[in-house]
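Hey, resending since the last one bounced:
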Amino acid sequence: MYSIPNPFSANIRVMKRVKGLRERGIEWSMKERLEDLDYADDICLLAQRFCDMEEKLKRLKEEAELVGLHININKTKGIRVNTSTMQKFRLEETEIEEVGSFVYLGSVVSESGGTEEDVASRIKKANGVFVQLYPVWRNLNISKEVKIRIFNTNVKSVLLYACKTWKTTN
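The structure tokens again:
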């Protein structure tokens, strides 16, 4: 009999052990911290202090190996939001590449901590969809009502994807 481990359930077990007894994530409310974001085999570790992130990386590697998972160091990226510490993240002897932004589940996360880059990306993507639909917009046999429905379902949905996570400002 063969079995294929479900990476998602393994990730949940691993992340519970990585967290351990001490919370090291970013402060979410007075009593809660956000430790990580998990989706399938993607993990986004979060910490407010550099030493906490180092410890999380070390524990993640150890716990993942216990269940047969390995960290792909070439796909692992680091980002700093509103911090002055410039010490490099390392996993064993390998330095982790620092980036100014990355895409997580279709949304742009940037070192500024804002949503400007994500909003700009959404506008570009929606514009691309709009342009692809030029034949529909020019077609005289399609009613205005149908065109509006196509716009709402195809262009607006791309534009507003994940907009509930955007930071609201003046």
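Residues 101-170 form one domain.

Sorry for the duplicate.
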